[in-house]
């Protein structure tokens, strides 16, 4: 007897085939199994060789291994990282264009009168990578060894003291401005187009001090070409255990660090956001990755997308006040 002989059986089977044909996986399951199917671009808003680029490349290699697709670093330097940020903000929110979101983006939110994107609304935070302290360094010819002597020199010198930066509105500049506000000391900002030329002039004595990122000045401190007065993080660095923090040197609560995270364009599927976060947390726990970051004075900071979003909002608020009080403007 044929299976399809009776009308009732034919109807039941027809209904079953229709149900199977129209059944789909939930949207979240579809996204997680389908992504990624091609290489991912990780945009860095700075030139190759800087701290942001080096950290991005460490993460990109391991993230690519874990995702099964290459993660390619794409350097789009310019306008204090705004060039790269705008490219990502306008990219399709499909998980194939990501961005190394940094402290500069939260500063830019109030530093620039007009931007082609919104630094806070146009990105989907995925997770922090690491934080890097700044180090207040001086030319060894300056008669300053401690932070108290630095402030005293600034207050007693006819022209105060000069501090260099990698550019107006950079985290290096704003670190100095924040200390200037806290110390109430006469400090003259001297902007450069990048950290390298600023350090060159500091070594040559054309400027007197700088609140530079730790990876940039560590070799010069170790070589005796620059003197480290204080570190801007809340805790001392194991790489420079004898260098006190600004906080313990008379300015309680002072804590300024450059930081780096990964974000995608706003609207990136949550399944992709969670996948990137999960893999990022895993790779930051790898001993070899942690050591490579620690060698750069970078402290791994794994966390959730929600924690990164909260952090960026609090940082934007903090730097808005510093920009307002200092009168800092973009170049």
Structure description:
It is a single chain. The chain is α/β, with parallel strands linked by helices and 331 residues long. Helices cover 44% and strands 19% of the residues. Strands 1, 2, 3, 4, 5, 6, 7, 8, 9 and 10 form a 10-stranded mixed sheet that branches. The protein starts with 6 loop residues before the first helix and ends in a 5-residue tail after the last helix.
Summarize the structure.
By secondary structure, the chain is of the alpha/beta class.
Largest sheet: 10 strands, mixed
Strand coverage percent: 15-25%
Judging from the principal axes of the Cα atoms, what is the shape? globular
Please give the number of β-strands: 10
Helix/strand-derived category reads alpha/beta
Number of helices: 12
Q: How many whole angstroms does the radius of gyration measure?
A: 25 Å
Classify the helix fraction into a percent range.
40-55%
The mean pLDDT is 90
Give the topology string: H per helix, E per strand.
HHEHEHEHEHEHEHEHEEHHEH
N-to-C span: 87 Å
Taking pLDDT < 50 over at least 5 consecutive residues as the criterion, the unreliable ranges are: 1-7, 12-32
């Amino acid at each position: 007897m044929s299976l399809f002989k009776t009308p009732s059986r034919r109807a039941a089977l027809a209904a079953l085939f229709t149900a199977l044909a129209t059944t789909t996986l939930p949207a979240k399951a579809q996204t997680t199994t389908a992504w990624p199917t091609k290489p991912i671009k990780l945009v860095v808003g700075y030139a190759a060789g800087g701290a942001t680029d080096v950290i991005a490349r460490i993460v990109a290699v391991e993230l690519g291994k874990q995702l099964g697709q290459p993660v390619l670093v794409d350097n789009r330097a310019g306008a204090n990282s705004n060039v790269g940020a705008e490219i990502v903000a306008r990219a399709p929110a499909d998980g194939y264009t990501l961005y190394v979101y940094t402290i500069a983006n939260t500063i830019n939110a109030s530093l620039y009168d007009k931007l082609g994107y919104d630094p806070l609304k146009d990105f989907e935070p995925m997770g922090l990578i690491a934080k890097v302290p700044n180090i207040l360094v001086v030319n060894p010819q300056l008669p300053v060894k401690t932070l108290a002597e630095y402030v005293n020199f600034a207050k007693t010198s006819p022209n105060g003291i000069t501090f260099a930066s990698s550019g107006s509105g950079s985290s290096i500049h704003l670190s100095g401005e924040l200390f200037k506000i806290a110390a109430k000391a006469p400090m003259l900002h001297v902007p450069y187009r990048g950290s390298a030329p600023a350090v060159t002039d500091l070594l040559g004595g054309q400027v007197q001090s700088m609140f530079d990122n730790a990876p940039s000045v560590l070799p010069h401190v170790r070589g005796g070409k620059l003197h480290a007065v204080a570190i801007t993080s809340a805790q001392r660095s194991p790489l420079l255990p004898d260098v006190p923090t600004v906080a313990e040197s008379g300015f309680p609560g002072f804590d300024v660090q450059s930081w780096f995270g990964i974000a995608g364009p706003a609207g990136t599927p949550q399944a992709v956001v969670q996948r990137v976060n999960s893999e990022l947390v895993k790779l930051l726990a790898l001993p070899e990755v942690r050591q490579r970051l620690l060698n750069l004075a970078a402290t791994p900071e794994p966390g959730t997308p929600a924690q990164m979003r909260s952090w960026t909002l609090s940082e934007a608020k903090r730097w808005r006040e510093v920009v307002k009080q200092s009168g800092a403007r973009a170049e």
